[in-house]
Structures are given as C-alpha cells and as structure tokens.
Amino acid sequence: FNQLELLAGAIALTGALVAWKQQIFQGRAAAWSLISAAILLLVAGIDTLLTPRISGLALNLEVLPNTVEMATKLSGSMMALQETYWGIEALKLVLALTMLIACWRVLASEGDRVPN
User: Fold this and answer.
1) Alpha carbon of 42 to those of 92, 104, 106: distances in Å?
2) Termini Cα distance of the chain
3) Residue 50 in contact with residue 116, Cβ under 8 Å?
4) What is the pLDDT of residue 90?
5) Taking the mean position of all CA atoms in its chain, how far away is CA 100?
6) What is the DSSP string of 56-112?
7) Going by C-beta distance under 8 Å and a sequence separation of 6 or more, which residues neighbour residue 92?
8) Is 23 helix (H, G, I), strand (E, B) or coil?
C-alpha cells in the first residue's frame, strides 16, 4: 500500500507541474498546488519508512517476557510512532483537500468562461 501512496504522490506532483506549465493554475493556486503535491510525495515517503518501524516494534512485543519495565518502554516508543503516523496522515488529508479545492476553483472558473 505504501508503494501505491508513493505512486499517487508522484502522479499528484506531476499533475501539479503540468498544470503549472500549462498555466492552468496561476498565482497563489499554482504555488499552493506545487507545494502541496511536493509535501504529499514527501509524506508518502515518510510513511513508507515509518510503517516497517511500527510493525517491527509490534513484533517485538509478542516475544518479550511480560516485564512491566520493557512493556512500558516499548509502549512509549510505539505510541510516539503511532502519533507521528496519524499526524502525518492528517497532514496528508489537509494537503489533498487543499489540492482538490484548488482544482475545483479552476474548473468552476473555466465553466464560467465557456460560451453557451
């Protein structure tokens, strides 16, 4: 799934670059779409690196003896990684919505310019 996110991020960045080059997005919309697409690709890359670490900690939890000290240490690490992961997912959602809103505005303005 992480590879699909990387592919989607690359497609979003490519689409934003094409829209900027074709002057579909102009001004602030162009800047926001390029920045958002680049950050989306970066976030997908971070997720790709973070997911195996979270899974690795989960595997370690299964084989450890039931000591409170070790479980507390790993659960703190696990919670920190989970919070980071969900924070990144929230950022991804906000950036994707930003790009969709920019596209919607461009399409809405294009509809206003098309003669009947």
Assistant:
1) 10, 24, 25
2) 44
3) no
4) 93
5) 14
6) HHHHHHHHS---HHHHHHHHHHHHHHHHHHHHHHHHHHHHHHHHHHHHHHHHHHHHH
7) 40, 43, 44
8) coil
Closest CA to 28 of 93, 101, 88, 113: 101
Residue of 38, 40, 53 whose CA lies nearest to 89: 40
Burial of 36 (0-12, 13-18, 19+ CB in 10 A): buried
Neighbour tally for 82: CB within 10 Å? 13
Tens-digit pLDDT profile for residues 62-111 = 555 555 565 566 677 778 888 888 999 899 899 888 888 888 887 787 66
Model confidence, pTM: 0.69
